[in-house]
Predict the structure.
Amino acid sequence: MKVFIGLLLILGSSFASRLINSDELQELFTKVLKNETADNDLKTIQDVFEIYRPASSSLKMQFESNGRTDVTCLICTSAFAALRDLVFEGQTDEMLSEAIINICISLRIVSDRTCKGIVPLNIPILTYIIKTTPEAAPRTFCGLLLQNADNPNTCPYNDPRFEWTIDLPEENPIQNDQIATSNSEVLRAVLVTDAHIDPLYEPNGVADCDELTCCRKGQTPRSDTYKTDIPDSVFKKRIHEVKDDFIMDLDLADDIRNLSNAIRTARNSPRAGYWGDYRNCDSPLWAYDDVIETIAKHKDIDVVYYIGDNIDHHVWETTYELIDGVNSYVIDKMKKEFGENILVVPCIGNHESQPTNQFAPSTIKGDKLNTTWLYNSLAKKWDFYLTEDAKATLKKYGSFTMLIRPGLRVISLNNNYAYRYNWWLVYDPLESKRLMEWLVRELHKAELVGEKVHILAHIPPGVHNLYYTWTREYNRVINRFSKTIAGEFNGHTHSDEFKVFYNEAGAPAAVAWGAGSATAYSGYNCNYKIATFDPNTYEPRNIVNYVYNLTEANLAPNRRPHWFQLYDMKNSFQLDDLSAASMNNLLYRMVTEDLLSLDLYAAFYSKISDRRWPNCNNYCKIDNLCKTVVTVLWHRERCEELRNLFFKTISN
Ligand SMILES: [Zn+2]
Ligand SMILES: [Zn+2]
């Protein structure tokens, strides 16, 4: 039936000029990039983006009949196809940047400043990849960009290079546990992550602006608000599927404008807070200082795990100098406050690179392309803490390993390689496989000598920010070495959460612990944690989280924030221990006889943020819980099981 309607639409399209399919869309993008648009072309492209904006923010914009793809995928692939054609026609980076900036500005997708910054930062990488990589299909770029947590079919890319498996060594039949640790003292580690320092943060500045991130000196208040949650039915009336393609009726743009106009209001938002802001603002320098100085008051710390993201979210105006400066500041401040006797083990976040999120293979040397500059500069900044071997692998993969106590090894894993926003994945997805092979070699060496391992990795396992094969193979690695890995610690989400890995038989095998964030960016309170570890197994005995309430802190800018212990994992959740089995039991308890623990988990998830916690209803609570059991992207069976149990419990 759908196909029939589509055919009718094609037949009718000579009468109704407002219909557009993907080939026409690509042609249109090409004209725009070549600066050959007529007036009505510009109107058409404005309409297309009027549609793209709300569609891209709606996860439900999936068309059910063939379950294949999504309208944002159509627009994205058409735009990338046009870009690819022009690169092959010989347009220079400068010409392409200028054309894209112009269209970006006239469409008001983001602010003018954002357009002018983000395009020239990314174009050299994109054109390099397009020129050198025959497999770099528009669909691969878009499939990664638009990947979401719920559905593998939003924009499937079917690029066989992304399908790989990792070789795992046979398990030694005799467990090598003979490293007799002479330590009878527990190990105390600080978990701290995601400082996101904005050196240009302005207290009382603009916290609600037209840009992606605010609170920086020189920003102006928001001029427009767009309603982005347009109901799916509005789209479905105007978009028709024909086989794998869509035909879009551009009158949809008018429908969306009418709905958006209705809610456009003048806004007068409160100014930015002194200690930070729950809105899209990074942290002032003094808020970072406060976190580190507060941690330094704990006198019994052995080691600090810092899990990445030093740099702000003003991703359109990052510079090498600014990144370098903040990277130095972060580590120097820790050294100063903690002293030279406390080891700091750092890990690279996706914001440390230039431009943000881009991690090139070490074979890439070109100016504006390579990531070697970052690895080399971090090897110098972190020199005090790292061994020569650690510096050598840091320079290659941004990853390293160090024995930090007899019997305990830390692996700092730069899993930003596998981040879906890393364009270099399209250049060579196997670089991330090589990194995982290195991880396996290091874990195997540790296993053979009976060491225990803590893994630090910025991006947590199983999230839609990592590509599918990586999450699946990583899950295999963790399972294979579950006797060696005593703990994993992550950052990146800024929320406070943990994840349980399951083995093939469905039994809980390992736990990855989120560290939260030292910034309030995107509506969280700041936090750090102190984990105590068993001196022999190096498994966590307890994890205690410390926070302050940002609203309260901002009411008294002249006083230091009032830090307090939010919870202690073991006692707050009444756990015997923090093993995978215990954490798994807790998850099932939370949706059956102990809903209070689910409430606690929801409160702790946002670190009792005034912005988020009061808005966390039952759906939010169960969504939070769902994330704990998804360590392979799209493997959501256990999540659905927990969801069903929860709704059964509350309906009784
Ligand atoms: Zn972050
Ligand atoms: Zn991050």
